[in-house]
Every structure is written in structure tokens, then in C-alpha cells.
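Two proteins were folded this term; both appear here.
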Amino acid sequence: MSALGLTDVRDIAWADGVELIDDVAHDEKEPFSTVVVTPPMQGWALVVGPYFGLPFPQQTAHLTDVCRELSANFGKAQLFFHSEQNDGEAWLIAERGRIRRRWISEYPQLALGEPFGVERRLLDAYGITGKPEDLDPNSDLARDWSATWGQCWATTVAGESSIDPTTTAPDTVSTSGMLVAAAAPIE
């Protein structure tokens, strides 16, 4: 919590935390103000909220620095954004203070690193030997890939790289409560 600069930390029931994140995500005045932190899940602490939304350009550089710093301190740190309304996919994977991959489907020009794992396998399946950010955006191949992001969703990348919270079995999660905290404003 302190490494993230979170303040005003308090307990919140699991169901209330889930509802709060949905409310915050739709708050036009302060969408980046609040995060919810889960108890450890399969060795990972999940920090959830729009504050960590890579597809918001005003957040990208700051979140990249945060992820890099967290990975330097804890070995690994990852950020994921998945939209069930097909609004985009994003992930940021850092290990030992280095960014391995940053991909933001809506802003391919902000990509860093080399595709690996499921992303690389799906690119290969589409016949894309390089990186999706290097494709001519007007090409048929780029349009085919971007129509579904090659079905390379953030939840799939998360499941392979760490944990997919959408498929974690309920018996592996403490449903007793979470923490809610105020996020530091991005400068």
C-alpha cells in the first residue's frame, strides 16, 4: 500500500468493493480517485480500479514507472485492462525493474518490449512475424488483428503471466473483505 502511495485505507466487504469499483469507473469527476486491494490471491495482491487503467493516456507514463519500481522491489508487477464491451485490451508486465511488454490496443504507438507467451503465439497464428504495433494500420492483416486483437485479451495474458481474476476459483479467495484506499493524484 505504501509503495503505491495509497492513503485513507479502510476495510470494505468483498461485494461492496466490487460495486465500488464499478461506481468509480463511471464517475466522470474523479474516476482515478479510489482503488480496491484484494487479500492475496495465489500469491498476488490485486489492486483494482480505473486509476490503473493503461488506456488512459494521462496515466500511461506514470503507471509504467510505478510498475517498473514495484517490480524492482518485489520481483514482478503487472497491470491489465480488459473491456467486456470491446473497448480495448492492455497489459504491462515488468520483472526486476525492467518492462518486458506494454501493449495498449487503442494506442499501439505506446507499445514497449517484445510480444511473448500467448501474444506471440497468436501473432504467429495470424502470420505476423513482428509486433502488432509495427503493422501498417491500413493493411488487411492489421484490420484482421485489431478487429479482435487476435483474441489476445488481457485476461488471457494475465492468466498465463500471473492470475486471471475472472477465472480464479472462489475457494482460493478470501471473501471476508478487501481494502479500499485513496489513490494519489497523477501529476
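Next, the second protein.
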Amino acid sequence: MTAIEGSVALVTGGSRGIGRALVAALYERGAKKVYATARDPRTVTHPDAVPLALEVTDPASVAAAAEQAQDVTLLINNAGASVNANFLDSPVEDVRREFETNFYGPLLVTRAFVPVLERNGGGHILNVHSVLSWIGLAGSYSASKAAFWSQTNSLRLDLKPRGIEVTGLHVGYVDTDLTVGIDAPKSTAESVAAQALDGIASGAFEVLADDISRQVKAGLAADPATLYPQLAA
């Protein structure tokens, strides 16, 4: 289990949406310092956060961020992209771009910060997935998040002997600027952040932050037609 109080956290994509809510929630729970990363650190608005420039797909940018944040004990891989490329019709470059951000990006960040966490006595990593990790309804986005989920499961085994715990967060639609045009039930970013930090504090392997995530996860053991009713037509 990892204490939030007194921790030093780094949140990728910390200037908006779930990332911004996580930064605020960390300070509310007594974090000592929170690095909030963004491509443009001027977009970080929390008054106490430490803005940090980071492009997760750029190895040099990742290395520079790790060099500046040597006191981190809690890493939150939240930054992501939503291209939703179609596997048959979209340019393959769009599929690659989604994987670069949603799979290879957090891998680069994790590899850079594992030595930091180890030097600081161990720690915790939270990876922000999606309910779409478990259901292929969004093309390359679903595939990249499914791959990220698998990465998290492998890292959990690799990092446990090093004293680093790993939690995966799954959630459906969240009420942020990215989902303004979507008419569907949405969780608040604050609720998702609170559940995520509860999971970190309790040492949970996974946090399922809404009903749809719990329903889809339960459906994985059933026939594919359960999750994809169009197959039964």
C-alpha cells in the first residue's frame, strides 16, 4: 500500500481532464509535491503544481523530465491520444500514432522513472486505461488501450520484486472537454480521481471507476456475442 500523504507525484497530461483532477486530489490528500506535465507547461493551472514540459513520445523529452523530477515516488501515466483510426480505411500512420502515444509513451515514461522510484525506496505507478481496453469499439484506440492494459499486467510482475506497485484504472466516458459532444452517462473527473487515489492507497491491482467498466470486465468471460450483440444477429 502507498501513502498519498507526503508523496511526490508526477502526473502526465496533468493540465486538463482526469489529469487535472488527479493533481488537485493529490494535493487535497496531502501530497508534498506534484509535477503536472504537458506539452506546453503554461497550460497547467493548479497554483501549487510544478509545471513540467513533456512529450511522452519523445525519448529526449522523457529523459529530461526524469532528470528534473528525481524525487518522484508516485508516477501516474495519464497522457493519451484519441485518434480512433479504422483498421481497414484509415492511414496506417494514424494507427501508429495512437500506439506511440497510448502504448509506447507510457512505456518510455515508466522505464525512465523506475530507477527514480527505486532510489527513493520503491513507490507506485498508476496507469490510466479505459473500458475500451476490453471491448473493440474504437479501432486503434481500443487496440492501443488493450495493449497498454497488457503492458500494465506484465509490469506489475516485473516491478513487484523492486518494491514498486502498479494499479490500472479503467473508466468509460468522463465529463471533460473531450466528451462535450457525446450524449451518454459520464463520470465526473473528480470522482474518477478520488477512486484512483483510493486504489493506490489500498494497493488495488485495478480500479473500475464506473458501472460500464464493471459490466464489460465481467463480460470478458462470456462468449464474444455477449459484448458484441451484433455478432449474434
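The longest strand covers residues 164-170. The first helix runs from residue 17 to 28. These notes refer to the second protein only.
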